[in-house]
Amino acid sequence: MTASHNMNHQHGKMKKQYSDDRSLFKAPPAGYFEDLPDVVMQRLPRRSVKREEGRRTVAWRRWAPAVVTLVLLAVIWWVRVRRSSSSLHPVPQEWTVEDEILYNWEDDDLLMEELASRDDGETSYL
Amino acid sequence: MPPEDADLLRRLQDPASERMAFRELVKRYQERLYWVIRRLVHSHEDTNDLLQEVFIKVWKGLPSFNGRSALYTWMYRIAVNEALSFLRRDKWRSLMRLEDPSKVMAHRLQASIETDGDEILQRLHAALLQLSPQQRAVFTLRYFEDMPFKEVAAVMGKTESTVKVHYHLARKKIEEILTET
Fold first, then answer.
1. Is B113 on the interface with A (CB under 8 A)?
2. Which member of A74, B98, B163, B179 has the lowest number of beta carbons within 10 Å of its beta carbon?
3. What is the ipTM of this complex?
4. What class is the B3-180 domain?
5. Which residues of B touch A33 (CB under 8 A)?
6. pTM for the structure as a whole
């Protein structure tokens, strides 16, 4: 009887016969399973402080993407607000006395000089 | 989760008893995990390296183990993932050396089995080399470990229907190969 026949029609029988395939492989060295727990235990890293550090690292990794995204969104929002506010109050192309008053009202000396240089009586509105 | 595993897990989560409990865990599962890995990578030396890595990963992962799956399902998952990662790395290493990965695996299998071993088993394992690593893993868990499909799915991180398809395709391909030879 071939293996394929077994696979096809006698799966249960084949399971019993071939599912334990350990004897096919060369056995691990004698005493391997007796020694392995000691080998593994010697290789284990210590916990103590690292456990806390590990938790902090995990928490940081969990929050970092959200924090970075929020900061980026805040920067984008700020840049957009700055741009839109400057477009609402554009610098005039032709500089008039009214513009001077509006934009340089803090610089009184400059303004007074400008107005004094005019002798057409338009300064009366001050 | 089996009651003995629940008790072990409780002791593993207590810093006062965790090392002693972990030694017990290694003793309890070393042989089962050894054979799952050995069937996939064949060589004892590679299996030994991977098995030690699996236990170290289990130790590191225990503080964050949430207990949603059974302890042994979680460890099987780590073991299968380690073995599959090894096979991927090994395939690339073979390709970099301009060798045929399937021939390398066949050679390694021949070197790892008893020359006077059961002939059908030899042919079965040779046929398994023709499958994808995922299919081999599913077949190994289902056929050799006699694991229910639900647990195979949990170990592989796939749905039950996906692993059933994998197993069905694996069996079909093995049947074809064994019929040809």
1. yes
2. B98
3. 0.86
4. mainly alpha
5. 30-31, 34
6. 0.69
